[in-house]
Amino acid sequence: MARGTAADMKRAVASARAAFEDRRWAGMPPAARKKILHRLADLIEANALELAVLGVRDNGTEIKMALKAEPGSAAGTFRYYAEAIDKVYGEIAPTPDNVLGLIHHEPVGVVGAIVPWNFPLMIGAWKIGPALAAGNSVVLKPAETASLTLLRLVELAAEAGLPDGVLNVVTGQGAVVGEALALSLDVDVLAFTGSGGTGRRLLEYAARSNLKRCYLELGGKSPNIVFADTKDLDQAAKVSAAGIFRNAGQVCVAGSRLLVDAEIHDEFVAKVATYAAAMTVGDPLALTSDIGAINSAGQLESDLGFVDLAQREGAELYLGGQRLLEETGGWYMEPTILTGVKDSHSVFQDEVFGPVLSVTAFTSETEAIQLANATSFGLAGGVWTSDLSRAHRMVRAIRAGVVHVNTYGGADATVPLGGVKQSGNGADKSLHALAKYTDLKTAWIQL
After folding, report:
1. Which residues pair with 224 in a beta bridge?
2. Which residue out of 62, 70, 217, 334 is catalytically annotated?
3. Residue 351 bears catalytic tag
4. Which domain holds residue 212?
5. Would residue 214 show up in a list of annotated catalytic residues for this protein?
């Protein structure tokens, strides 16, 4: 893939700025913009297999998941925001009779987006969709190891009728083109999904440049809490296994910390291990694979390093922990379960971003809440219980942007995804995401 330069990014931002200033997109009638985004969704669906395969070639996601999570999700996202274009209104303030107060929602201008390698098309759509719906221009920088689907998306957007300059993608290194994007005085909002370290640098670049708003989704260490009164432990175990091992654990909301009621600890861990052991790890393009590849050699080394460190710190290796299929030249790892994990252990506190599940027992609801909130992250969580009151108490008590109850994953575009604490700020998805890409303007009219 072409390694862009700072000059390439400067040209892309200038193109986006020109497109915004002449209002070739923002000034288009809402119904016309809506039709173009619907056509883009149609084209994504028509080219779904190609897009999914391009993504799998980049990041190793199992094709069964990639088809739904990448083109399937992206098409749905563009349709959702297409429908919002002519249904989101301004406001009239409750003023005296001799004054008319109008509140307009206006596009911010140029949106810079930086997305990760695990689900580039899905997460890219989460940022591009509402930004375009609001009337902005977008410049997007993909991860160095996963840009094919987003480059194809730009071609499909042009085919759908999106005007030139409105959507731009620049490939390259974060330290070069990412930095140029974040420091640009012509970028009004920066939207990022990725690591905490990079997020901190982006905040610094925003301060050093034009004080652009910076929205960050910085990953998580999400607790999946199973109480002894859970109605169907087999279903809970099956979903919990998928919640950490799908896409080889390379999911920001993965339920990577399993907190289990001590009363059912041994029984439930055995059930999860049974489902995990039955999952097939292999070629991500094979329909028989339940778990695909690790994204890179460096990521695999990091994942295995966490397993070794956890054992040195006192955790027990219950399942897996080894590299698989090394003879293929690919990067594969067994689904891994660590038991006896304490809240002081690194594997409890740090995001692994791999197929590694830590298990910790609790003896009371109070302890479960304490353990759930005992990390610096706050992106997602899960609670399994048949007690409705307990479910509501846990939803309120867990500090996270999303709390699943008697399931894990699957939240659609109608609800926001955002983090608290060091998982970031702002929200992707839902109508709430539009607020990131709009400014409020008051018109105070004396009558």
Report:
1. 258, 382
2. 217
3. no
4. 6-218+424-446
5. no
